[in-house]
Design brief:
single chain; about 450 residues; alpha+beta; Chloramphenicol Acetyltransferase; seven-stranded mixed beta sheet; six-stranded mixed beta sheet; 10 helices; about 25% helix; globular; transferase; CAT-like_dom_sf; (Z)-3-hexen-1-ol acetyltransferase-like; Plant_acyltransferase
């Protein structure tokens, strides 16, 4: 069982991988969406690949070479972040210094990671599979990307990557990694050419904040649950397949089910039952931060398919704990949908303006549950090894904010596809959360 799994990782000395050809030396400004305070951290992802007996290539060599070729086109990633100007504006100094790369071997097999019948976070010894090189997780003047490829004794391998979030969101990272896949497969250029154009998401002149943007409310941070002081935080992942989603939909009126996506339905469900488990003060405002991509919303001008910057918003749904837990699930779902569909082109323009007028505030995390759909990362296919068995986030939570879940595409050994949702809660709250879910899924077994 992976929860108690321990193993040794033998790492080579970290090296810098440079672009395979000379690249321009220039200073490139980030957008006003990119360099907000809440994105100034490094975000890790991890991918597991099975052994292919027909594969004679060393994954470390293939990926290192593909990385060098990719950096020719994505050369800002080989640079360093600088404090570029007034109002804490960040810029990338395209120095060509390269990204950090670690070659490693582990005395463990892929099957040992599979708990019950699927790979799911939190993964044991995660810090060994993506080693935090001393000083590398600073925001300024350090490598913008860290990669580690760890060969497993079964012939499979683990590919882990960490990026400075101000550079890209999940869609942008996916573009970068898919270009690496292009080169690993022998292509001579990216299938989708990368585009910088960060000015397209800059603030307007004159500035005009036209939306409330309550996700950036200035609030004193207080505890969101009764147990946080005496309870240890624990992480656990939950699988939601066809049966689980059918059970959730039975809690909703049919007309609303037909007009709601899986993401909207599942998110409102977890938000509600997570709040039940936390047992906050009934009058406390509970927040759902629903990360929404704005790529399809921007039309004047549209973003290029190769745009790899951050292009999303943090719209928030707010309800008191009493409302959320006492009213039916339909209440939470309607709030979640309202927040999601509030993101328009004008919303994004207003958000960029807010970043400049308010000094790039961090989103409010008090009483908040943040969700992000990173299922796009399930398709990182280096060719000979096929798609990853698991591709996504390595654990619940981000930086110092445990109340975040990234939804990952998953497949059980029996072929059933679904979504894995990592959740982090105080121990007693987690016990209550599991019990609540078991009540809803009494006919099923949940991971």
């Amino acid at each position: 069982m992976s929860g108690s799994l321990t193993f040794k990782v033998h790492r080579q000395k970290p090296e810098l991988v440079f672009p395979a050809k000379p690249t321009p030396r220039e200073l490139k400004l980030l957008s006003d969406i990119d360099d907000q305070q809440g994105l100034r951290f490094h975000i890790p992802t991890i991918f597991f690949y099975r052994h292919n007996p027909k594969a004679y290539s060393d994954p470390v060599a293939v990926i290192r070479r593909a990385l060098a070729e990719t950096l020719v086109y994505y050369y800002p990633f080989a640079g360093r972040l600088r404090d570029g100007g007034p109002n804490r504006k960040l810029a990338v100094d395209c120095t060509g210094e390269g990204v950090l790369f670690i070659e490693a071997d582990a005395d463990v097999t892929l099957v040992e990671f599979e708990e019950k019948d699927a790979l799911k976070p939190p993964f044991p010894c995660f810090e060994e599979l993506l080693f935090d090189v001393k000083g590398s997780s600073e925001v300024l003047n350090t490598p913008l990307m860290l990669m580690q490829v760890t060969r497993l004794k079964c012939g499979g391998f683990i590919f882990a990557v960490r990026i400075n979030h101000v550079m890209s969101d999940a869609a942008g990272l996916s573009l970068f990694l898919k270009t690496m896949c292009d080169f690993a497969r022998g292509y001579h250029a990216p299938t989708v050419a990368p585009v910088w154009e960060r000015h397209l998401l800059n603030a307007r002149a004159p500035l005009r904040v036209s939306h409330a943007h309550r996700e950036y409310d200035e609030m004193p941070v207080t505890g969101t649950d009764n147990d946080s002081k005496e309870d240890n935080l624990v992480s656990r992942s939950f699988f939601f397949g066809h049966k689980e989603m059918s059970a959730i939909r039975r809690l909703l009126p049919p007309n609303l089910v037909n007009r709601s996506t899986v993401m909207e339905t599942l998110t409102s469900f977890i938000w509600r039952y997570r709040t039940v488990a936390i047992q906050p003060d009934p009058n406390k405002d509970m927040r759902l931060i629903f990360i929404v991509s704005a790529r399809s919303k921007l039309t004047t001008p549209p973003l290029s398919p190769g745009y790899y910057g951050n292009a999303f918003a943090f719209p928030v749904a707010i309800a008191t704990a009493r409302e959320l837990t006492k009213k039916p699930l339909e209440f939470a779902l309607r709030l979640a949908k309202e927040a999601k569909y509030s993101v328009t082109e004008e919303y994004m323009r207003s958000l960029a303006d807010l970043m400049v007028t308010k000094g790039r505030p961090r989103f409010s995390s008090d009483g908040a549950y943040l969700v992000s759909d990173v299922r796009i990362l399930a398709n990182i296919d280096f060719g000979i090894w096929g798609k990853p068995v698991y591709g996504g986030i390595g654990r619940a939570g981000v930086v110092n904010f445990p109340g975040a879940s990234c939804y990952v595409s998953a497949e059980k050994r029996n072929g059933e596809r679904g979504i894995i949702v990592p959740v982090c809660l105080p121990e007693k709250a987690m016990q209550r959360f599991v019990k609540e879910l078991e009540g809803v899924f009494s006919n099923f077994h949940i991971l």
